[in-house]
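Sequence, please.
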């Protein structure tokens, strides 16, 4: 079967792919699952014509964002002859082979999927599904997602508990899922309560306080809050959220020189009231310092993930904060 998953909600896309991989024989996972990143045309066709071996089903994941967002002509990354060859390969793939095309727009990216491209139109004829981030103001949709995810983990949550989780954690689906996992371990067979959520889950308030102290340059308070967060969250999770917060603050600070808070809110998909508070909050904060801080954190993340850091993960991030 052919599938096409695209959009900017990374967590839901990766979850769908996990479902396919979970059905594969774990003893042959290295042979039954292959991933390609925007392969050149000959390699793409070769991958599509792969035949499953004797060990059963096979999954091929093809990251294809570059085909759909590159600065090629509006007709797409491939010419008509190539499109025809790709279609033929797709229509004749083995019944034990699942091919998943993925066009996931990274966070903080300006890339967009061009739906005019012939390649997009081709993939859309198969099992195509768009995964979009749920805006923070769509609380009913987010609460519905939390309930569904909790059900998959055998967690029973009351409406009051679901609302508290959303208030505490925010709209990031990956963070919400991680907090649900923690609640499952903590609660065991017992019902999850509002008090459990307040005690266990990292809150938006915790992260905002930490970010505010950091941006103000109050290093003593910053380190105190950082240590508190470490008791509840892995350093890389803190770093990920901090990147998101800083990105939003940088956008607001940069746009505030030319646009009103209401205009900025529409541009960056944030509640107008929160934008107004941020504009006032960042009034005496230098845009240059915000950018430098994000750069330091990005370099720390690169060192950690590439194995080039000579420090523990939490210390590497702490060093980036202190610079």
């Amino acid at each position: 079967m052919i599938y096409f998953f695209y959009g900017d909600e990374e967590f839901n896309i990766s979850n769908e792919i996990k479902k396919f991989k979970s059905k594969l024989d774990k003893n042959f996972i290295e042979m039954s699952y292959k991933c390609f990143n925007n392969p050149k045309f000959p390699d793409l066709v070769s991958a599509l014509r792969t035949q499953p071996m004797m060990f059963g089903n096979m999954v091929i994941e093809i990251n294809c964002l570059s085909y759909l967002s590159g600065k090629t002509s509006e007709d797409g990354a491939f010419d008509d002859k190539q499109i025809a060859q790709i279609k033929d390969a797709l229509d004749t793939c083995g019944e034990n082979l699942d091919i998943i095309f993925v066009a996931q727009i990274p966070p903080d990216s300006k890339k967009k999927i061009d739906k005019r491209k012939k390649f997009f139109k081709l993939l859309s004829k198969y099992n195509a599904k768009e995964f979009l981030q749920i805006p923070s103001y769509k609380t009913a949709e987010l609460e519905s997602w939390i309930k569904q995810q909790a059900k998959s983990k055998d967690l029973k949550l009351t409406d009051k508990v679901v609302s508290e989780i959303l208030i505490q954690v925010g709209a990031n689906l990956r963070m919400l899922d991680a907090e649900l996992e923690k609640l499952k371990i903590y609660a065991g067979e017992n019902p999850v309560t509002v008090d459990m959520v307040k005690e266990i889950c990292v809150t938006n308030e915790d992260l905002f306080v930490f970010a505010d102290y950091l941006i103000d340059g109050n290093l003593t308070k910053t380190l105190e809050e950082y240590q508190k967060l470490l008791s509840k969250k892995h350093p890389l999770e803190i770093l990920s959220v901090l990147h998101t917060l800083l990105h939003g603050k940088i956008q607001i600070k940069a746009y505030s020189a030319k646009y009103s808070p209401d205009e900025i809110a529409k541009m960056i998909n944030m509640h107008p009231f929160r934008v107004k508070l941020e504009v006032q909050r960042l009034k005496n904060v230098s845009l240059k310092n915000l950018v430098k801080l994000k750069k330091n954190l990005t370099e720390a993340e690169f060192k950690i993930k590439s194995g080039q850091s000579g420090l523990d993960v939490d210390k590497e991030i702490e060093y980036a904060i202190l610079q």
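Strands lie at 2-7, 33-37, 58-63, 97-104, 127-131.
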